[in-house]
Amino acid sequence: MILAAGRGERMRPLSDATPKPLLKVRGKPLMQWPLEALARGGFGRVVVNTAWLGEQISAKFGSVFVLQPASNKRNRLLNQEQMQGRLRIAYSHEGRDFGGALETAGGVARALPLLCPLETAGTTSGVFWVLAGDVFAPDFAFSQAAVERFVASGRLAHLWLVPNPAHHPRGDFGLSPEGLALNPPSGDPRQRYTYSTIGLYHKALFAPPWCDIPAGNPGGLRAPLAPLLRAAIDDQRVSAELYEGAWTDVGTPERLVELNQAVMR
Which of 38, 240, 244, 246 is deepest in the core (most CB within 10 A)? Predict the structure, then answer.
């Protein structure tokens, strides 16, 4: 699931007429980068939630995304099957259905029937990626092996953490030597890292006792994800790892300019 429903207040005025996931980074709409990465990883379906100017997102990407061959040497080395990766895209239109975004947990709960359809079978049933459509991580690999490890772990979520950027120096979660996510209390000297917004989730996290929103969220309840995660972390049900590749929360016009200028240097 790609989260693309936010208003993008910090990105104004650029987001007044264009939803943030469609702003261009290095010549492509920001959301196209994770679509390409998911297709390269062999995944075939993606759900996108929308609210602010959501009709522009569905008009841009439609119902099928096809990975196009690139001219650079790195992508020429990909095998033919990867180069022809296709993603079927379904949309959860929160703005159309409820007049606005439902926040992260509310949005995932709303999309659960699309993410985990009843007819889906197999060992990975009920497991899905979640990532923000306004984060730039061009080298992150969405792999089947990561899904298989997560399924085997029996945990409720697996988070990728990143070193704290300048605009978020205190971070979000700790990381134990055993690979568990931690909630260090205030004043705890242990290192905190920033949640990259990329994670693997099991649908059980969006059901009691962790979440009281019915699957499909028919009432359009708005709810954040952080309280669910923190409760599951305290129960040692969430694992994590540190990702040190290129990563940017493209939250302001200044950060967008910096990313686009960097490629021209």
Answer: 240
Set out the domains of the chain in order of their start, with CATH numbers.
2-262 (3.90.550.10)
Q: Are strands 127-132 and 2-4 parallel, antiparallel or unpaired?
A: parallel
Give me the pLDDT at residue 190, please. 83
Reduce the DSSP state of residue 115 to 3 states and report it.
helix
Burial of 199 (0-12, 13-18, 19+ CB in 10 A): buried
Residues near 39 by Cβ (< 8 Å), separated by ≥ 6? Answer: 65, 66, 67, 82, 85, 86, 87
Q: CA angle, corner 228, sides to 222 and 229, nearest 5?
A: 130
What CA–CA distances, in Å, run from 53 to 1, 48, 57, 74?
18, 13, 7, 35
Instruction: Enter the tokens of residue 251.
Output: 């939250």
Cβ pair 11, 23 in contact under 8 A:
yes
Q: What is the CA radius of gyration of the chain?
A: 18
The 10s digit of each residue's pLDDT in 71-98 is 554 444 444 444 458 899 999 999 999 9
pTM of the entire predicted model: 0.89
Say if residues 174 and 193 touch (Cβ distance below 8 Å): yes
Alpha-carbon dihedral sign for residues 216, 59, 88, 139 = negative
Under DSSP, the state recorded for 100 is S
